[in-house]
Design a protein that fits this description.
The strands form four sheets. Strands 3-2-1-4-5-6-17 form a seven-stranded parallel sheet, with helices on both faces. Strands 10-11-12-7-15-16-18 form a seven-stranded mixed sheet. It is globular. By secondary structure, the chain is an alpha/beta fold. It has helices at about 15-20, 25, 40-45, 65-70, 85-95, 105-110, 110-115, 130-145, 180-185, 230-235, 250-260, 280-285, 295-305, 320-330, 375-390, 405-415; strands at about 1-5, 30-35, 50-55, 75, 95-100, 120, 150-160, 190-195, 195-200, 210-215, 220-225, 240-250, 270-275, 315-320, 340-350, 355-365, 400, 425. Helix 1 packs across helix 15 and helix 8 crosses helix 16 (about 405-415). It has three domains: about 1-125, Rossmann fold (3-Layer(aba) Sandwich); about 125-260 and about 335-375 and about 420-425, 2-Layer Sandwich (Dihydrodipicolinate Reductase, domain 2), CATH 3.30.360.10; about 265-330, no CATH class.
């Protein structure tokens, strides 16, 4: 019997845990879930006979080292800052390691030692990053195999609210880390346009007129991610002239969010004493110099409670922290809401001196506020990869992200069996 240890039982782990438990008898697994909130871990196990829940304190090694030493594969669903600690322990104990976060330079430095131990450390194995890499690489490799030369690559991904659950003027609800929502884009963005690197400052990111149409979903605005440039070499696109990785939002979201950014409401650097300040006075002072507050934007801001007379009473906090609390209160998923994942690749390439374009799109909807589309598209690739590693299908030692054919092909084929399937338009 093999044992899979999952560290972290938060929102993104729900489908991962459920999927592994559903296969536990067939694959002869036990699934251990450890979290700082033991009741949350118990909820995710839900009494399954092949599941066990444990208390986790990462600073107290005796709460998780014995579990790690007794397992065969470890999946970290903890914050990114914790991954190196877990990965280093996996290396010492000879355990495979997976996560859904961006590969850090520190983790990458473990590659040689991981290879020597014959272990698989697989990072960026979720949605974005994850499914975006795998689907992009399959399309890129197919074009290259035909002799095509890729000149344009745009990749857009977003966690949104499904139309049937869209009931607010932002056309958005939070299905992932709310702090990341508030601070998104605050370092600006770098991408390739007409063969030249472009640096777009933070206030210019959220342009509601920058849109794409996604089959079966409609028209959405996009803003470029922090730094697209490293992915050009990673994807092997030496001839590309236009390369962007972006995040999707409803155009109205970008219109309203642009105002919040320009007015400094998303600033996280300056602290204020909020106990004697009302929301109305604080945010009206921030917005006083914004010239384009039309009725719809006023409605959006009022919906978030930014103009209420109530005192903030959060102690010394930043504007971003105040805004985050309001987002969590006003834009949370209701019990029966359906969230929605959208992913679109736009690839332009030249084959036999003829320019062609192909679009690959993915639309995934959640079941409810717990088994969300976000949790599904993060959790399923991890669960599939764990099975493929334990069954000896993925056998590529070292620290990797899923851009290798030996990783992305079997994972994508299994995702298709679970209705995570791309639509292709030539």
């Amino acid at each position: 019997m093999q044992t899979i240890l999952i560290l972290g039982a938060g929102k993104s782990s729900t489908v991962l845990i459920r999927t592994l438990l559903e296969q536990a008898f067939q694959e002869d697994w036990t699934v251990w879930v450890a979290d700082g909130n033991i009741s949350l871990a118990n909820q995710k196990i839900a009494g399954h006979p092949r599941g066990c829940s444990y208390y986790l304190d990462l600073d107290q090694q005796d709460t998780w080292h014995p579990l790690l030493n007794a397992s065969d594969l470890v999946i970290s669903m903890l914050p990114p800052s914790c991954h190196l600690t877990v990965a280093s322990a996996c290396l010492r104990s000879g355990k495979h390691f997976l996560n859904a976060s961006y590969l850090s330079p520190e983790l990458k430095q473990l590659n040689e030692a991981v290879q020597e131990r014959g272990l698989v450390f697989l990072c960026e194995m979720g949605l974005d990053p994850g499914i975006d890499h795998m689907s992009a690489m399959e399309a890129i490799d197919q074009i290259h195999q035909k002799g095509g030369r890729i000149e344009k690559f745009y990749s857009h991904c977003g966690g949104l609210i499904a139309p049937e659950s869209d009931d607010n003027p932002w056309h958005y609800k939070i299905s992932w880390n709310p702090r990341n929502v508030v601070l998104a884009g605050n370092e600006g963005a770098r991408f390739l346009k007409d063969g030249q690197p472009v640096l777009l400052p933070y206030p210019e990111l959220f342009d509601p007129g920058r849109t794409v149409s996604i089959p079966g979903a409609g028209t959405y605005a996009w803003y470029p991610n922090r730094d697209s440039m490293p992915y050009i070499n990673l994807y092997g696109l030496k001839d590309v002239y236009d390369f962007v990785r972006s995040t999707l939002r409803h155009p109205d979201f970008c219109k309203g969010w642009k105002v919040l950014v320009e007015s400094g409401c998303t600033d996280d650097s300056e602290l204020i004493d909020s106990d004697s300040t009302s929301y109305h006075d604080f945010f009206r002072s921030k917005l006083k110099n914004v010239p384009h507050l039309d009725d719809h934007i006023e409605h959006q801001l009022d919906f978030l409670g930014l103009f209420q007379q109530k005192l903030i009473q959060m102690g010394r906090v930043s504007s971003a922290q105040i805004l985050q609390r309001q987002l969590e209160e006003k834009l949370s998923l209701n019990k029966d809401d359906h969230d929605m994942i959208l992913l679109l690749h736009e690839i332009g390439y030249r084959l036999n001196n003829v320019y062609r374009e192909v679009k690959l799109s993915l639309v995934v909807k959640g079941e409810d506020a717990i088994y969300t589309a976000m949790a599904k598209t993060v959790g399923l690739p991890l669960a599939i990869a764990a099975k493929l590693i334990l069954n000896g299908v993925i056998m590529l030692p070292g620290v990797h992200i899923p851009v290798h054919k030996s990783i992305y092909l079997p994972v994508l084929r299994e995702l298709e069996q679970k209705s995570v399937r791309f639509t292709v338009e030539d």
